[in-house]
């Protein structure tokens, strides 16, 4: 090992959360080092959010165009898959991170490429791909932002089946003839939407009671109906018990509970995420390896006044935008503590990521899109709130009918009857993802229903759904 190099802050993991920690701590005048074992920019930039949306956008644009009179006949052919893949590759930088490195250099931070591990209190050991060793010492904070990886269940035959995870599903160079997808959450439904549009015959196998289980039940129902209409097979309440691959390049089969066998050319296991904490030295500071990292309301690890965990690894919210939000706040926390300044840790204060638990937004880019923020009805009731669900058929909104012939969608707002504020909202329909930020403001701001009545939506837009929901609530 070389002599330790000292920084104010050392960040372990260069995904979106880690990058935002670097940005905020450097803006506060702290010296910062970033350690990354793969590509700076992380899972989101190369194998998740960015490439998946590049694959999905042509599919959704074509679907929208086919619902517009005068345009539908012009877009009846197949997608140009080569152009779609080229566009995806452009947005991933052809899986090169030089642009991210240039940005980090420009703000005066330092990047160490290699595998980083905690090396006791306030220290990180880095082993580079070339075998070089470095010890980094942090005056004020070490931040763990190593993210998650896909879970592949330990089924009989799974190792030899070489299944896709989200990484292969977003970076594949050609569409498989038949794609089996095991799972019912976001990765499963988005990749089903993309690859069905790109020419694959898709079969979705979901073990639970419906798709998108973290949203209101109608969201998964509408997405499932649309996938079936697009030609995909969607099966709910089924369990995979074994997997068989026929030779190195042959087809892959799944054996369902009860013995039924389904065959495909590729198999995507979209069955959840697990923290990338198994080999980052947590044991050197008395923490369990391979587990989610518990944090307090400032994302600091209890019992370690120098250690923070930001983004997926703390299990508060496994979403890129929330990891970046946490990082912006934690950057301010570290800067304030380094300066000896007091913290504002009240709910919605400058130094606590309250939105992770009260106003968490998510958009799912299926056809139709599904977007939600805050609590579902079931979650609100379990939390002890007295609520009313207000529903409206989005096809009855003028702006929706002009947006697309045969528009189908549904909206719900969850009202806290004691305070008359929104606890949550869900929108499902073409273009619905662009509605969710207004709902996020209403939930995060705890805007009274009476005040929302004066937020007049422009006519004729899909956002007129807000007026219809409020009218329905008033009766």
From TrEMBL:
InterPro entries: Class-I_Pyr_Nuc-Dis_Oxidored, FAD/NAD-bd_sf, FAD/NAD-binding_dom, FAD/NAD-linked_Rdtase_dimer_sf, Pyr_nuc-diS_OxRdtase, Pyr_nucl-diS_OxRdtase_dimer. Its EC number is 1.8.1.4. It comes from the Bacteria. One of its GO terms (molecular function) is dihydrolipoyl dehydrogenase (NADH) activity. Keywords: FAD, Flavoprotein, NAD, Oxidoreductase. Belongs to the class-I pyridine nucleotide-disulfide oxidoreductase family. This is Dihydrolipoamide dehydrogenase.
């Amino acid at each position: 090992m070389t002599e330790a190099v000292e920084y104010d802050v050392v960040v372990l993991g260069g995904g979106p959360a880690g990058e935002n920690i670097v940005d905020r701590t450097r803006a506060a005048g702290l010296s910062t080092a970033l350690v990354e074992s793969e590509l700076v920019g992380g899972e989101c930039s190369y194998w998740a959010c960015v490439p998946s949306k590049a694959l999905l956008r042509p599919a959704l644009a074509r679907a929208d165009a086919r619902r517009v009179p005068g345009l539908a006949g012009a877009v009846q052919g197949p997608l140009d898959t080569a152009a779609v893949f080229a566009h995806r590759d452009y947005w991933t930088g052809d899986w090169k991170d030089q642009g991210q490195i240039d940005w980090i250099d420009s703000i005066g931070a330092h990047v160490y490429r290699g595998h980083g591990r905690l090396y006791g209190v306030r220290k990180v050991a880095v082993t580079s791909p070339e075998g070089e060793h470095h010890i980094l010492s942090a005056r004020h904070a070490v931040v763990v932002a190593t993210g998650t990886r896909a879970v592949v269940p330990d089924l009989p035959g799974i190792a030899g089946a070489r299944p896709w995870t989200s990484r292969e599903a977003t970076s594949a160079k050609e569409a498989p003839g038949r794609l089996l997808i095991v799972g019912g959450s976001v990765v499963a439904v988005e990749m089903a939407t993309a690859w069905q549009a790109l020419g694959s015959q898709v079969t979705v196998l979901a073990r639970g009671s419906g798709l998108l289980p973290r949203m209101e039940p109608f969201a998964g129902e509408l997405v499932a109906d649309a996938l079936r209409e697009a030609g995909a097979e969607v099966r709910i309440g089924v369990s995979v018990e074994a997997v068989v691959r026929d030779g190195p390049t042959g087809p892959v089969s799944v054996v369902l509970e009860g013995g039924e066998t389904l065959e495909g050319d590729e198999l995507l296991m979209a069955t959840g995420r697990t923290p990338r904490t198994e080999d980052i030295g947590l044991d050197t500071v008395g923490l369990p390896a391979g587990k989610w990292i518990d944090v307090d309301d400032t994302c600091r690890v209890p019992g370690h006044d120098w250690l923070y965990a930001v983004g997926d690894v703390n299990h508060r919210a496994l979403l890129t935008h929330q990891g970046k939000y946490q990082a912006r706040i934690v950057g301010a926390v570290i800067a304030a503590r380094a300066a000896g300044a007091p913290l504002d840790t009240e709910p919605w204060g400058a130094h606590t990521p309250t939105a992770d638990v009260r106003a968490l937004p998510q958009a799912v880019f299926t056809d139709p899109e599904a977007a939600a923020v805050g609590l579902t009805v079931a979650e609100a009731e379990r939390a002890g709130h007295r609520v009313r669900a207000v529903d409206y058929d989005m096809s009855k909104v003028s702006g929706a009918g002009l947006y697309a012939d045969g528009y189908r969608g549904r909206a719900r707002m969850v009202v806290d009857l004691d305070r008359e504020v929104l606890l949550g909202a869900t929108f499902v329909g073409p273009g619905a993802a662009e509605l969710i930020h207004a709902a996020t403001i209403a939930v995060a701001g705890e805007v009274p229903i009476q005040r929302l009545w004066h937020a007049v939506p422009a006519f004729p837009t899909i956002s007129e759904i807000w007026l219809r929901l409020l009218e329905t609530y008033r009766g």
